[in-house]
Write a structure and sequence with these properties.
- This protein has 386 residues and is an alpha+beta fold.
- It is built from ten helices and 20 strands.
- Strand 18 and strand 19 form a beta hairpin.
- Helix 1 packs parallel to helix 7.
- The longest helix is centred in the C-terminal third of the chain and has 31 residues.
- The two termini are 29 Å apart.
- Bound molecules: flavin-adenine dinucleotide (FAD).
- Flavin-adenine dinucleotide binds next to helix 1, strand 2, strand 3, strand 13 and helix 7.
């Protein structure tokens, strides 16, 4: 694919990683982003949007040459993952059991985006159009043409739509999706703790939805509280001091003292594009699929899309674009659907009030904890190192 002109719409984590990997292969990139992307101040408070990155995602960021640019004091490695149903036995995953240094890393989304952008800005054959949106897309036999909102025109052989869950490109091309709301929202709460950095992330399942703890670098952490939209609206309306009191009363107990310093709520929607490409336009990341965030897989799946497409474009460059995009869809759509469906089953089972399902759930967690090699395989799969 080297020496081709490629347009990317959306410079989030997925779009920026795609741009960098393709640019490193010698392609000319046109990256269109709605906002202006700035590098955060190193001592800025932690942002609410954080993600757990698998070993495979870390490897991809290393291949792109940016992993080492993430400041160490914004990076949290975790070695343990504990999950349980309120009042029942814990299922404990530990990096020691599979002789790994860690299970994954938790980093603010904006830092991943920032280090990718810093690298992109160094490359002469990457043209950045920030604070711009796409007004018009037209597809031709050999090319795709884009007009921006300042009337500038760009041409390329391929357009990657990485413009997130509400993808304007996907909507513009009328690519249909299946979607539904989970009828649950989640509140992200950043806290500062009086104890040193934690190394275990955990999730307690309740009939009202999961409650999770994600350690962040230093004395920082993120709490994730899933509940009905009404309850989340109420929690969001509280002052930080009032919210702290509700956390102490209702959230699973935290074994340290803490202060709340920011909060924000998100609706949960599952969405899947019915097809991943149309002529010379291809969807990646949240533009193609969104998933329940309870297992922290969203951007990891997006990065797998990037890896798959970049490999096809670089290793099968003699194939016609239509064949490359068909192979991309055949590899990624079923894999993403499987993960979405797995999460949905897990989510439904975790919320069910049926006494039979409650019994099965508790027995399953107990059996899973004893399952040895099966548990280790699940761990490796989630880390992307199976
Ligand atoms: C509460 C919550 C917790 C999560 N936790 C995790 C986790 O722990 N682990 C994990 O792997 N995933 C997690 N996810 C999912 C993860 O955040 C997303 O999968 C990821 O951000 C998707 O990246 P993206 O680049 O595809 O899309 P986005 O991050 O949405 O980026 C899209 C980019 O396109 C730009 N854009 C939008 N429209 C246009 C336009 N018209 N023109 C030009 N540019 C445009 C935007 O400004 C943005 O920069 C979580 C999600 C939520 C909601």
């Amino acid at each position: 694919m080297a020496n081709r002109e490629i347009i990317i719409v959306g410079g989030g984590m997925v779009g920026a990683l795609s741009a960098l990997l393709l640019a490193k292969d010698g392609d000319t990139l046109h990256l269109i982003e709605k906002y202006s992307v700035q590098t955060p101040l190193e001592n800025a408070p932690f942002d609410l949007r954080v993600s757990a990155f698998s070993a495979q995602s870390k490897l991809l960021l290393e291949t792109a040459g940016v992993w080492q640019d993430i400041p160490l004091d914004r990076l949290c490695a975790y070695q343990g993952l504990h999950t349980w149903e309120k009042g029942s036995q814990k299922l404990i995953f530990s990096s020691e059991d599979i002789a790994a240094e860690q299970l994954g890393f938790i980093v603010e989304n904006r830092w991943i985006q920032a280090v990718l952008w810093q690298a992109l800005k160094q490359l002469p054959h990457v043209h950045i159009y920030d604070n711009k949106q796409v007004l018009n897309i037209s597809q031709h036999t050999q090319q795709v043409h884009v007009t921006l909102d300042n009337q500038q025109k760009i041409q390329g052989e391929l357009l990657l739509a990485c413009d997130g869950a509400n993808s304007a490109v996907r909507n513009y091309l009328h690519i249909p999706t299946t979607s539904w709301d989970y009828r649950q929202h989640c509140l992200l709460i950043n806290i500062t703790t009086d104890s040193p950095q934690q190394t275990v992330t955990w999730q307690e399942f309740r009939e009202t939805g999961p409650c999770a703890f994600l350690p962040l670098a230093g004395n920082n952490a993120s709490l994730v509280w899933y509940h009905s939209p009404q309850k989340i609206k109420y929690l969001q309306s509280l002052t930080n001091q009032q919210l702290k009191q509700v956390i102490l009363a209702e959230f699973p107990s935290l074994d340290f003292t803490f202060e709340v310093h920011s909060k924000g709520s998100f609706p949960l929607t599952r969405r899947h594009a019915k097809h991943y490409y149309q002529d010379r336009v291809v969807l990646l990341g949240d533009a193609a699929h969104t998933i329940n965030p309870l297992a922290g897989q969203g951007v990891n799946l997006g990065f797998k899309d990037v890896q798959c497409l970049v490999e096809l474009l670089t290793q099968s460059s003699d194939l016609p674009i239509a064949e490359i995009l068909k192979r991309y869809q055949c590899q990624r759509r079923p894999a993403n659907l499987l993960m979405q469906t797995g999460m949905d089953v897990f989510y439904k089972v975790s919320k069910s009030e049926s006494s039979l399902i409650r019994f099965a759930r508790k027995s399953f967690l107990g059996l899973a904890q004893q399952s040895g090699e099966i548990k280790n395989r699940v761990m490796r799969y989630a880390m992307g190192i199976n």
